[in-house]
Amino acid sequence: MLNFPNPNRSFDERRRYVRFWGADGAIEIALFLELAALKKLVPTLENTETDCIGAFDAYIDRIHEVAKKVYSRNKQGSYVCMLTAQNF
Fold first, then answer.
1. For residue 1, what pLDDT is reported?
2. Domains, in order of start, for the chain
């Protein structure tokens, strides 16, 4: 089961996503939240690091909930999980 012991997150302006990490047992999973997905939660979101990280933090419980569902559907040995606007 995916959990989130690592609170670190970062915004990649060039790739337009917030990166964060989860764990499935001893396996670390890199998760990427596309900017378009974050804008579904906050339609007025600006494309700045401060705004994106702030929005991520404000909706972290919802993002983690969606991440668990997406990861459980697609976990076939992958250590990477992309969350898109379609997931929200």
1. 87
2. 2-87 (3.30.160.140)
